[in-house]
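Reply to dn_fold:

You asked what the input looked like. This is it:
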Amino acid sequence: MSKRQGRRTRGQEKLARFRIKRLFSLAELSFDEGSFHESKRFINLARLIGKRYNQRLTKSQRMLFCKSCNSILRLSNSRNRISPKGWKTVTCLSCKSVSRYGISKS
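and this is what came back:
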């Protein structure tokens, strides 16, 4: 029997997007309950599913967590600043990494 080649089916991609969205909501819930390690694990799983099924995270999902330590960025563990040059600078207080995001000029 030959191995299937080519892209994944649309059903598989749709299921992967659904699972990523569900894992992000579970991560937010577990962070609110105080289980920080569990929320990091959910974020890590969502990133792995995105890599495996070649599904990009949405911009809001990408801005929700720290890229280096996978912790959810909330007011309690991050610092948000807006620079005059049109950047939003987010500093993770867990690992001290800095992320910059462009802001639209509207």
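The chain has one domain: 10-102.
Hope that clears it up.
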